[in-house]
Structures are given as structure tokens and as C-alpha cells.
Design goal:
225 residues; alpha/beta; six-stranded mixed β-sheet; Class_I_gatase-like; peptidase activity; stress response; glyoxalase III activity
């Protein structure tokens, strides 16, 4: 059976602000929904394992897919409440790794060399690496088989500087995702703000924002064959 590993953030608060953050719920639920529809088995990991905080702003515009999972006690307890830690993951078990976003990911994803190593092994085993919105921060520490940044010379997208400014969080994040990707040599391309945009470069697939989650998941399914 095809198997995916979904990466979620453990960070519950902006570093410099008394403002909560965490996982952007729809970036998980919409991707996960497509995986389940196509009988893809899914495990969940986070940098420290265990509980996953939700960004409260992501719960202000929940749709039917979000509610379906949020109201499921197994989802809340077993997915959001009990993620694996990196040392519990065997990379060879997975065909795909997907980094969901939320502003919290800007702090713990780049610092998690353990998850980056897992992603590198999945990619080098001919698996897919996917990321969305602020989840692309998890791509930054991933190395290819030559020890070079995986994103170098790759066509990709992620939460744009324009979207960060519109969100009034430019000065609240430790860096801007778009800038960091470009600094590593990525061919960053964004679409119109807050509309679906998916970029594919071989086995690296990325989505720009929460609106891209389902389209990205469908593209992943295509590439899984």
C-alpha cells in the first residue's frame, strides 16, 4: 500500500508576539481527505512529537472538510494529539512526505534536521516531497544526494512576500519564506495572492497557500501513479 508521512508543527505561539499560532487546519484536512479518498495510508510526525496546536485564525473560516475531521474524536486525539517523533519514523516505509503549514512551521521546521534527513531519504528512494504555504520552511534544510540544498534550481512556490504583507505578519516571522527559498537558489514562482497555485518540478511538489491544498494533493496522487 502507498504510504505518506505528513509533517505538522508543534509551535503554538509567535516568538515575538503574544499571539497564538500553530497548524493551519485546512492545509492538513484537505490534503488528508484526498489521501484517504485514494486509499493512501498516512502517518503523522512533528519535530518533537505529540500534541499539535491549531492556529485559531484557521478555524474562523472552516468548511465542510475541516468540520468533518475536527468533529472526529479519533482525528483530534490520534492525529492532533499524538504525532510520532522523528526517531519513531522509518523513512523506507514512505512514498511521500508532505509538510503542512501554519506560521508555527517557520520556527520548528527549519530547525528539525531529523525530519529533513527523513525527507532526504524518502526523496533519494524515489519518493515525493511536497510542501504548502509556510510548510515550505521545512524544505530549507533538506539536502540532495550531493549534499546540496534540495530546492536549488527547482521550480517551486510557497507563501509569498505579498501575502505575508497582506496578513500583516511580515515583521512577526523570523524570515520570509519566498526570500529564504530564493537565497538557496530556488526558482520561486507565485500566482495571484490567496488563490490556488501549485508548482511541480519532478518529485518536488509545492502549493502557495491554504487555497492550494486540495489541488496539491490531487497532483501528488497523479505523480504517485
Amino acid at each position: 500500500m502507498t504510504k505518506a508521512l505528513i509533517v505538522l508543527t508543534n509551535v503554538a505561539k509567535y516568538d515575538s508576539l503574544d499571539r497564538p499560532t500553530g497548524l493551519w487546519l485546512s492545509e492538513l484536512t484537505h490534503f488528508y481527505d484526498v489521501m484517504r479518498d485514494h486509499q493512501v495510508e498516512v502517518d503523522f510526525v512533528s519535530p518533537t512529537g505529540g500534541y499539535i496546536p491549531l492556529d485559531p485564525h484557521s478555524m474562523m473560516s472552516m468548511d465542510a472538510t475541516d468540520w468533518k475531521y475536527y468533529q472526529d474524536p479519533d482525528f483530534r486525539n490520534q492525529v492532533l494529539g499524538a504525532t510520532l517523533s522523528p526517531d519513531q519514523v522509518v523513512p523506507q516505509d514512505y512514498d511521500l512526505i508532505y509538510y503542512a503549514g501554519g506560521h508555527g512551521a517557520m520556527w520548528d521546521f527549519p530547525a528539525s534536521t531529523a525530519i529533513a534527513d527523513i525527507a532526504s531519504q524518502i526523496y533519494q528512494n524515489n519518493g515525493l516531497v511536497a510542501a504548502i504555504c509556510h510548510g515550505v520552511a521545512g524544505l530549507l534544510p533538506i539536502k540532495d544526494e550531493k549534499g546540496e540544498p534540495l530546492v536549488a534550481d527547482k521550480l517551486l512556490t510557497g507563501f509569498s512576500n505579498v501575502e505575508e504583507a497582506a496578513n500583516e505578519t511580515t515583521d512577526a516571522v523570523p524570515f520570509l519564506a519566498e526570500d529564504a527559498l530564493k537565497e538557496l537558489g530556488a526558482n520561486y514562482q507565485a500566482g495571484p495572492s490567496f488563490t490556488s497555485c501549485v508548482q511541480v518540478d519532478g518529485r518536488l511538489l509545492t502549493g502557495q497557500n491554504p487555497q492550494s491544498a486540495r489541488d496539491l494533493a490531487e497532483k501528488v496522487i497523479e505523480h504517485l501513479g
